[in-house]
Amino acid sequence: YDYVIPDKGRWLGKPMARCGITDPKLQRDIAAVMIDQFNRELRRMAQGMGHVAYVDCRNSVGDGNWFDELHPTDKGFAKVASKILTRIKEITVQRTGRPRSVDAAQPDFSETAHRNPGRIATTGSRAYSLHVGLNSFDPRHYANESCDLLGCENDARAMRDLAKAEGYQARVLLTQEATREAVIAEMRRAAHDLRAGDQFMFTIAGHGSRISDLNGDEAAMGNRNLDSTMCLFDGQMIDDELWHVFAGFEQGVRIVMIADTCHSGSLARKSPPLVMAIPGEIIMPPRPRHLSRSLAARVMEQNLDFYQNIARSVPHVDRAILASPIKSPIRASVLQFSACKDDQEAMDGAENGAFTSALLRVWDQGKFMGSHT
Prior knowledge:
Layout: H1 13-18, H2 24-47, H3 74-96, E1 127-133, H4 152-165, E2 169-174, H5 180-193, E3 199-205, E4 208-212, E5 226-232, E6 235-238, H6 239-246, E7 254-260, E8 274-275, H7 293-302, H8 304-313, H9 319-322, E9 333-338, H10 354-363
Parallel strand pairs: 1-2, 1-3, 3-7, 7-9, 8-9
Antiparallel strand pairs: 4-5, 5-6
């Protein structure tokens, strides 16, 4: 029904004690992992059956409403029943177009009814995700070039589907929708809504580039005075802006960033990226997801004032401080998966990018049970 509380009962507490597990917090943590995994499998099973509905009852009973280590009190069961009744009403409306009648003698659970599409299987917390894919961009900002790609929108849709299957509330922005304003606004909305224990996933597929460092923060890191960028539809988003947005998330929020772009190794500065070098399945000659050096220089020259204003608007922070878990202004934890290092290129494909194709193959629709390490 919910996160059970091992005590001295015969189902959980005593068996754990026999295994040498006597610390109450560790007992509860182990039980929570089991409940989370159980919910994950229930949700996946329900997704494959049109006549089955999954109801997430975690965080509904509460510590004071347990009769023993496995069974809620009447009050606790009522809270669980409230969620189930709410789901029944929703299904009835969806299938018949009218609410299901409820006996007047029954308690009205409508005030306690709520939806939480942001549940994630592994923690029972809220989880938002943003998936950006650009097969082209506005040539007016990019020196009258389009540099069309093939697989980036497919990458964004595939990562959205992966996230939704894992319980994220997913939002996708494709090509013309993926403006600087729209992407930053979605990130800031997530930063405003999420709290400690919640999760945010950001995936980006498209062109990546590098521009001259205009505020002097790259020199100490040995990056040849270049900032990495994501090429959004109407302009590039500099890595300085990205970490500034990430700094708006509360401590305890967990951020996962997956970048299938060129020069993406250090886009997120909080921690070293995990560079996935698994070959993808690419049909037709692959092309890199980057701006050529000459085009990048022309874009920079054409929009110099634009990028100088960005550099002035983002506070200067020493990169050594950004990498420090004690001094970093980014309070959330950040885990980044990159298609390549800063000086390398990511490859596009007819269906998906090489990196995204490899990631999806390894994930295998959720059958992969390993960790990111």
